[in-house]
UniProtKB/TrEMBL annotation:
It is found in: Cytoplasm, Cytosol. InterPro entries: Rhodanese-like_dom, Rhodanese-like_dom_sf, ThiF/MoeB/HesA, ThiF_NAD_FAD-bd, Ubiquitin-activating_enz. Gene3D superfamilies: NAD(P)-binding Rossmann-like Domain (3.40.50.720), Rhodanese-like domain (3.40.250.10). GO terms for molecular function: ATP binding; metal ion binding; nucleotidyltransferase activity; thiosulfate-cyanide sulfurtransferase activity; URM1 activating enzyme activity. One of its GO terms (biological process) is tRNA processing. This is Adenylyltransferase and sulfurtransferase MOCS3 1. It comes from Triticum urartu (Red wild einkorn). Keywords: ATP-binding, Cytoplasm, Metal-binding, Molybdenum cofactor biosynthesis, Multifunctional enzyme, Nucleotide-binding, Nucleotidyltransferase, Transferase, tRNA processing, Zinc. The keyword Mitochondrion does not apply. One of its GO terms (cellular component) is cytosol.
Amino acid sequence: MIYRYSRHLLLPDFGVEGVLGIVDGDDVELNNLHRQIIHQEAYIGRSKVKSAADTCPLNYHRYDIVVDATDNLPTRYMISDCCVLLNKPLISGAALGLEGQLTVYHHNGSPCYRCLFPNPPPVAACQRCSDSGVLGVVPGVIGCLQALEAIKVASDVGEPLSGRMLLFDALSARIRIVKIRGSSPTCTVCAENSVFTQEDFQKFDYETFTQSPMSDKTAPSLNLLPESARITCTEYKGLIDKGEPHVLLDVRPAHHFQIVSLSRSLNIPLSILEEKLPMLETSMKETMDASATSDKQPSLYVVCRRGNDSQSAVQLLREKGFHSAKDIVGGLQSWAHDVNPDFPAY
């Protein structure tokens, strides 16, 4: 190990001792590999901690610094609160789309996460990589900078990003450093007069507090429609096999539709659905004219990625007179799971 890190150890400001630990309750997925380069295809479906440990042998003992690379709000609050209670500096990074940010919380007078965000933002304002995407190199850049900040804090060299936040814009290749306020005297967790204890921490429901789940795999599905306005993927496949005349409306964004789609589906994103209803009417009429039973209105089925936006679309369509509109439960993810395992879910 000395030879492996010899070029690092030759720098006089950095020591020899150090232990790395990884905490992650998730399993390795194929769509992780474009940015989480510690994992290999052979570990798909297995624990990320086990995968990382096999790649980088770890010794588990006490840690002095925590690096947060999570992508959801309840976990960020939880990790920050834990670091305050244990008096550990927190190297916090985030990446989404083509942008990233980085700061050091609870170190040398810098605020904790709750100081900056005493109340969680609205759920609609919180995005995840699994919903909005991320260019693989962006978390790579932020992750390298997090590693650098951890080394600086551990070695007590340089100027860590305490009380400052780094903002990275990949498209313009710009990095900005902005000043953030110090620890808040009214913070419920890190203020001098805070009464937040380890017992409070263990009982605190972070998912309820933020109104969002820690994992997108446990995110609750919407239930906006009666059963009569919904159809399962298996039932829809049966209608295709029977040759029932219908229109399949895909309400995902256009760039999602370009990734993958079901055969003969019509793409009108939910965001512009109301203004594009004439296009849907034309498609319905063409389907009816082409049908052997041209006197019968064709059925209308609506699909999206996970079965949530499609429900909102059906609500709108029924209000606008498309009374035959039905939601396909679970969307394309259910199609890949229940009907066609070879369908490229994303």
